[in-house]
TrEMBL record:
Signal peptide: none annotated. This is Metapyrocatechase. Keywords: Aromatic hydrocarbons catabolism, Dioxygenase, Iron, Metal-binding, Oxidoreductase, Repeat. Gene3D superfamilies: 2,3-Dihydroxybiphenyl 1,2-Dioxygenase, domain 1. Pfam families: Diox-like_N, Glyoxalase. Its cofactor is Fe(2+). Homotetramer. The lineage of its organism: Bacteria, Pseudomonadati, Pseudomonadota, Betaproteobacteria, Rhodocyclales.
Length: 309
């Protein structure tokens, strides 16, 4: 597909209960690269293979969870157009000036009906992945530490009114529905997996009474073997594993869910399939919801639906 409009997930701001513990986890266990700290007490990270300055920020707070999730858009003209389109659709936006986040241009922030703050931005410094832009080597020796995902890939958010959220993402931001899980009535969605690209999902939502909740932030690995290696590293570091290694029915990814030291669930996954906007959305029925979420167990664990941050 033509890559215009919204390009990809760009950054997440997470709350942690203990900053030093969080820094140690995200740097040494997950294996992100620390790229800066700001005067608000936020610590910035990227994966080793990402080029932009940051994709994950953590800050210390009294409760864990998500502050906001952002998408990169094609250019500043697109940012202005989407800002106007959101307003025309009845979504109030706020402009956050360039530089409020390190190395990051102006952001357009808005709240979706699930209670989450979403941001769009067009500019962020390219600090590279350690490889040259001319005649690069295929990988960088010693770049990978810990689990070492290649990118921050997507998030799954829990909150109410997900059909209104879907409308905003589809009608204004140009996303399309890739997969969905329907409830017992056969029509109301329990969960929606949305893409702005050819990835099986760039963001997903599950219906939940409490607004603004994070189910997981996901990091991509290149192979199933690296998913197994991630599980080894989690065990070595006594990371609390929720489930896996296993496979999702939805999106077909191979996965592990685990928790950071503050209780924010994260995923390390591999796979999923390529998709396009003309593809028919895949539906999972209520009686097969367990299979959709955890393909091997064929049933949900209680934590999947109830534990969020
Ligand atoms: Fe996921």
């Amino acid at each position: 597909m033509a890559m215009t409009g919204v390009l990809r997930p760009g950054h997440i701001s997470l709350r942690v209960l203990d900053l030093e513990e969080g820094i140690n986890f995200y740097r040494n266990v997950l294996g992100l690269v620390e790229t800066g700290r700001d005067d608000q007490g936020r610590v910035y990270f990227k994966t080793w293979d990402e080029r932009e300055h940051n994709s994950v920020m953590i800050r210390q707070a009294d409760s864990a969870g998500i502050d906001f999730f952002a998408f990169k858009v094609a250019d500043t003209a697109t940012l202005d157009r989407l800002d106007a389109d959101l307003n025309a659709f009845g979504v109030r936006t706020e402009r956050i000036p360039a530089g409020e986040m390190l190395a990051t241009g102006e952001r357009v922030r808005f709240e979706v009906p699930s209670g989450h703050l979403i941001e769009l931005y067009a500019e962020k410094s390219d600090i590279g992945n350690g490889q040259a832009y001319v005649n690069p080597a295929p990988w960088v020796p010693d770049a990978e530490r810990g689990i070492a995902p290649t990118r921050m890939d997507h998030c799954l958010l829990y909150g109410p009114d997900i059909e209104k959220v879907q409308e905003i993402f589809e009608k204004v931001l140009g996303f399309y529905l890739v997969e969905h899980v329907v409830m017992e009535d056969g029509s109301t969605n329990l969960g929606i997996w949305l893409s702005c690209s050819t990835k099986a999902h760039d963001i997903a939502f599950v219906r939940h009474p409490e607004p603004g909740k994070l189910h997981h932030i996901s990091f991509k690995l290149d192979s199933w073997e690296k998913v197994l290696r991630a599980a080894d590293i989690m065990s070595m570091n006594r990371v609390s594993i929720d489930i896996g290694p296993t496979r999702h029915g939805v999106t077909r990814g191979t996965t592990i869910y685990a928790f950071d030291p503050s209780g924010n669930r994260f995923e390390t996954f591999c796979g999923g399939y390529d998709t396009y906007p003309d593809y028919q959305a895949v539906k999972w029925t209520w009686d097969e919801v367990g299979t959709g979420i955890f393909y091997h167990d064929r049933k949900l664990n209680e934590r999947f639906l109830s534990v969020v941050s």
